[in-house]
Amino acid sequence: MSNVLRAIRRRIEIWWEGRHQPSEQWVLSQRNIYIVPTRAGLFFGMTLMVLLVGSINYQLNLGYALTFLLAGSALASMHMTHNSLRGLTLHARAPAPVFAGDRATLELVVTNPGAARHGLGFGARQGQGPVQLAFAEITAAGQSPVVIGVLAEQRGLHPLPLLKIETRFPFGLFRAWSLWRPAGQLCVYPRPEQPAAALPPAAPVAGGMAPARSASGGEFDGLRPWRRGDTLRQVAWKKVARTGELVSREGRESARHELWLDWSSTRQPETEARLSRLAAWVLMAERQGLAYGLRLPGLELPPQQGAGHRHAALSALAAWS
């Protein structure tokens, strides 16, 4: 019987949560704040009923006074619990991409136009279990950051999870909460292969000719116009100082070969294993300061390097299907 009730409750929760559409910000008002008595509040109400019945039976004036005093305190507590949320504005900052299996950091900015708020819990809906809340204090007349951890289980572009804000301040007799589905996506990269396989060999460029080695026997052989992805070490600063033209040195090997991270060169039977190996190769090429390209079925990124190219390559692996 308990399993049936749990399943019915979960279906109701799914229907209720599905009514919340994504939005850029969330303003807490009387229309989207819900409040119910807690278990302690229900027992407190039963105690008041017992006090009231005893006072009526024995005609106890002090019993009446105590009963109505406690009932008034409970009503005041209900309004304070509701007002702890009312008037707040929530805004979610775009989370940084993470690898599958890591915890993403979702930062909320809570704008409070009034007095300080105490005992506010924030959490994200993940799976079918209860929402784990992290409690914070919101400063008066200002903005307060709140950080929520979200477990990124699978690669891909995922919508941000449903968020819950809750409070039982001040006496725990009532529970007030609100639900918000923030607009935006979380990019989850494939989990890099561990240990990573060796990088594939650089492929020769069709029609590429290596320039003659310089007489000084230096590391670089020629000059060419600066391209996006060139490192500061490749820039010919003396030439730039004389002519004002931004040029880069070009070595023998870089002129003749390019490093391509190809889907077909992973030699893995499963799709996720291939993506995991390609992600490891992207990180390895970046650590070694190599310019690399990425080839996937129906997608090709030309050889570059840098943080932007790394994000583009890993995002392509995350969204590939």
List keywords for this structure.
321 residues, 2 domains, 7 helices
Tell me what the structure shows.
This protein has seven helices and 18 strands. The strands form five sheets. Strands 2-11-10-6-7 form a five-stranded antiparallel β-sheet. Strands 1-3-5-8 form a four-stranded antiparallel β-sheet, with no helix packed on it. A four-stranded mixed β-sheet has the order 13-16-17-18. It starts with a helix and ends with a helix. With 321 residues, the protein is an alpha+beta fold. The protein has helices spanning 2-18, 39-58, 61-83, 237-243, 252-256, 271-287, 307-319; strands at residues 25-27, 34-37, 89-92, 98-99, 103-112, 117-124, 134-138, 142-151, 156-159, 163-167, 174-180, 185-189, 203-204, 222-225, 247-250, 257-262, 292-296, 299-304.
